[in-house]
Amino acid sequence: MTGRDDDRRLEELVDGIVVLSSGDLSNRLQVSPARDGIDAVTTGINLLAEELQSMYEDLEVRVAERTALLEAAKAELRRVINTDELTGLASRSLLQEKVAEAVAAAGADRQPALILLDLDSFRLINDSLGHAAGDAVLRETAQRLGAAAGAGHLLARLSGDEFAVLIVDREPDAVLEIASRLGESLKDRIVAGGVAVALTAGTGVRLGEPGLRSEELIRDADIAMHEAKKRGRDTLLVFSAAMHEAAKQRVHLVAELRTALATDELELEYQPIVDLRSGRIAGAEALIRWRHPSMGTLAPDTFLEAADEAGLTVEIGHWVLGKAIAQTGRWKSGPGLPAGFSTHINLSPADLHHLDLAPYVESLLARHGVDPGDISIEITETAIMRGGPEVTATMQSLNDLGVRIEIDDFGTGYSSISYLRTLPAAMAKIDKSLLDGLTTDRQQESFVAAILQLIHSAGLGAVAEGIEDREQAERLQQMNCEFGQGYFFSRPLPVADMTDLLAHGNGAAA
Amino acid sequence: MPDKDLDSPGGRDISSLDFDGDGILRLKWARGVVIDAPNAQLAMDRVNELCGGQPTPLLIDMATTDSVSRAARAVFAKPCDASAIALLGSSAVDRVLANFFLGVNSAPVPTRFFTNSDEAVRWLTSQGHDRA
């Protein structure tokens, strides 16, 4: 082989390498029959190119496999995100997506509508029959709502017992008909945990309007649903502008309430409780007031509901406990408390769900030099009945501490009489609604007598609230009701007046 | 190895396959053969057939092979009845081909490249086998 040949072969080799380096790894260089050094280099380059090509191909296959796995995982994730696991319905996120799509697609044409339903008293089912039964009820609810809504509407479960139906391309009348059908579909009893339960729901409807954004559609349906829940069981309400205004005011009120807590605009008044047998002051119920800078003094019923919605209840409950126990400590130091006197403090169900409530009360008592017997905690009958094991545990802890427990609003809740004997309570307060007609209606008098007898049979003392005149007070005293409070004795008093009463009232009221 | 076998499809790539007097099985590829996965597998099958399950020293004369594909190298890397393999070549090309195999693939049995047949036989014999 001549040197010229070698030059040519080397040139071909270089050309081949240039092709390979341009990315065409399939190119192979010609090996001559000489099998000399140039051929050896050529062979080596061919082998390396093949190796590289093969590695790239493997890599591409692996990338494709991994991409397919990722795509599958993404699809599965999307399915999980879009589906409510328990019922198989759409999730909140999918509903939001579909509402946005429906609003966008509607343009100026027929607008989508949203129906929200929240089951009434569902927590009772969970608490009394267990979560498995609760889940079975939710699954059955989902099926019934699906059947009632009919095909073509997106049905979603938004949270625990809250469902939504997105209605597209229907006249308002048809939407309302569907909403009503949804509520009706729940009324046939559902067997869960071996018990047949009847369901109702609070239903809120928002009919779409041109220009209404998807988040506004959802928000307004929610406002209507919450308003329906407030009005009682089995209520259907269609959103109105007034509802939005009220909701806005509530939001404003909550913001103000947060400021009020921080700036000491809240205060307590005390309504004396009188021993009907002796006429002496036996205690005082602490009642919260809000000295609103522009609206004047607000009673608790005007702001506690909003506080509850905003999650401020526990903070307010702690504030009340702190103030009332501190005040009791100050009264103890001067002018002193009459024998058997106790300050009555109302606690909400939310307060009672906190297992650290009893230690908190204990620390306040110690800090302010107050005996546990100087304090009574009032808990409504409904809170006790719906409270579940945490509330019972908290009541027991408070009782163990020596703080008296009083059942508030007795006779207004749905209670089983047998619980009266098992509760760690010392007193029951008869709701003022039971005093209507006490002195004019024989039947009502017998009824109140029976209730008092029931309370006494359970070993509890009785307090009657809302006493407005001497006749009522005397009648209750004759019926062996031990304690009473109401405007007849005294309105709720500012701290200074209550202190004055304790100092100069000589323990006597009215 | 009967001629008809070598004449079968793919068999033509093998020039000869038989035992020598030392009990070494010798495989000689046809001139200019391109060894790819099918003919590599055929050669392996033939080798195993002749070995009959007995570990046997194998001498592969690759002096005239044109190229060995990646897939073919993978076939040679599988366990077979060979107890040791001597790759016999003569040119720089053979050395590159053989060493690429030795470097990239891990041979299942002792494998070395030789340019001298006697040395290859000595090495195979020294490996100690039933037949050799």
From TrEMBL, chain A:
What SUPFAM superfamilies does the database record attribute to this sequence?
EAL domain-like (SSF141868), Nucleotide cyclase (SSF55073)
The record ties this protein, via PROSITE patterns, to: EAL (PS50883), GGDEF (PS50887), HAMP (PS50885)
Domain GGDEF: start-end pairs: 110-241
Q: Where is the EAL domain?
A: 250-506
Q: Which InterPro entries match?
A: Biofilm_reg_signaling (IPR052155), EAL_dom (IPR001633), EAL_sf (IPR035919), GGDEF_dom (IPR000160), HAMP_dom (IPR003660), Nucleotide_cyclase (IPR029787), Rev_trsase/Diguanyl_cyclase (IPR043128)
Biological-process GO terms, alphabetical: signal transduction
Residue ranges of the HAMP domain? Answer: 4-57
What does the entry list under GO cellular component? membrane
Q: Which Pfam families match?
A: EAL, GGDEF
Name of the protein this chain belongs to: Diguanylate cyclase (GGDEF)-like protein
Which of UniProt's keywords are assigned here? Answer: Membrane, Transmembrane, Transmembrane helix
UniProtKB/TrEMBL annotation, chain B:
List each copy of the DUF7793 domain by range. Answer: 22-126
Give the Pfam families listed for this entry: DUF7793
Which InterPro entries does this one have?
A: DUF7793
Official protein name in the record: DUF7793 domain-containing protein
Q: Which organism is it from?
A: Arthrobacter oryzae
